[in-house]
Design a protein that fits this description.
Blueprint lengths: L23 H14 L7 E5 L14 E4 L5 H11 L4 E7 H7 L4 H7 L4 E6 L34 H8 L3 E6 L3 H13 L4 E6 L12 H7 L1 E6 L5 H10 L3 E7 L6 H8 L4
Parallel strand pairs: 1-2, 1-3, 3-4, 4-6, 5-6, 7-8
Antiparallel strand pairs: 5-8
Helix pairs in contact: 1-6
The chain binds thiamine diphosphate, iron/sulfur cluster and magnesium ion.
The site of thiamine diphosphate (TPP) has 17 residues, from helix 3.
């Protein structure tokens, strides 16, 4: 029997409490549509989040979810995937959650190649706590914690994920849910750790950097679909194209963690 799957069924009856105009609406829309197009059963999806406006995401998806501690979506999602390999597991985190307090988890989930899909809601600011600088806030940007300008050099999430050895590294844009949906689908289908940075505005606390206007004017399609693993091209694109969207790197040959465990436990 063909199962009828509509993308609205993934939408929770609890309406998102994000500010009107927040980019996160576009992200969950892309997520619903990716799940629908892959015909994932709601009961087979788990979304694990940390703390932040992005941390509320599981509440708005009509499936299983886990709103954990600040910076801890990756280890909880890892444990879940190791216990239930059959489930589709998303880990979601904001830039502060993923790269600040939780930054120590990223190298390990990447090097182990845990088969989960990680969505970095990158608005380059702490949204929930009212606009402090985060690890991706640009140098000199004025924020509530740095009213005369951020003194710190921002991290480049794509370069980090590449350097840590993530087997799938991509960037999408909240203002293009169709394009983002395609990237998320690829991330779900990828057998290994999928890292997806999503450019998105915080319309309430960022009036000068990652605004809708700025994003609309600068986001471009990189047209790089690197089937062959090519770290050098990917690194160069990450360095030169801060608003370029697409798949920067994918290693389809590398076994994921559970495949490695099966290999090590083989009976020969
Ligand atoms: C251990 C701990 N430290 C600090 C906080 C306060 N806090 C909550 S969310 C947050 C940052 C959120 O920023 P980000 O991860 O970028 O998420 P966004 O709100 O932008 O989605 C901070 C510092 C906390 N909840 N727990
Ligand atoms: S504070 Fe910013 S990130 Fe949080 S819901 Fe509002 S617009 Fe979105
Ligand atoms: Mg943020």
């Amino acid at each position: 029997m063909v199962r009828k799957v509509d993308f609205l069924q993934y939408r929770s009856p609890d309406l998102p409490t994000w500010c009107p105009g927040c980019g996160y609406f576009g992200i969950v829309d892309a997520l619903y549509r990716a799940c629908r197009e892959l015909a994932l059963k709601q009961e087979d999806i788990v979304t694990v989040s940390g703390i932040g406006c992005s941390g509320r995401t599981p509440i708005f998806i009509n499936s299983y979810g886990f709103h954990t501690l600040h910076g801890r979506s990756i280890p909880v999602a890892t444990g879940l995937k190791l216990a239930r390999e059959d489930l589709t597991v998303f880990a979601v985190a904001g830039d502060g959650d993923a790269l600040g307090i939780g930054g120590g988890h990223l190298p390990h989930v990447a090097r182990k190649n845990i088969n989960i899909t990680f969505l970095l809601f990158d608005n380059s600011i702490y949204g929930l706590t009212k606009g402090q600088s985060s690890s991706t806030t640009p140098y000199e940007m004025r924020t509530s914690s740095h009213p005369v300008g951020n003194p710190d050099t921002p991290l480049n999430p794509i370069k980090l994920a590449l350097a840590y050895g993530a087997s799938f590294v991509a960037r999408g844009y909240a203002g293009n849910p169709q394009g983002l949906k395609e990237i998320i689908k690829e991330g779900i289908l990828h057998q290994g750790f999928s890292f997806i940075q999503i450019l998105t505005p915080c319309v309430t606390f960022d009036k000068e950097n990652r605004t809708w206007k700025n994003l609309k004017e600068n986001v471009c399609d990189l047209n790089i679909r690197i089937e062959e693993k090519n770290m050098e091209t990917a690194m160069r694109a990450a360095e030169n194209e801060p608003y370029g969207c697409g798949i920067f790197f994918q290693d389809k040959q590398r076994p994921h963690y559970q495949e490695i465990l099966r290999h090590l436990n083989r009976d020969d």
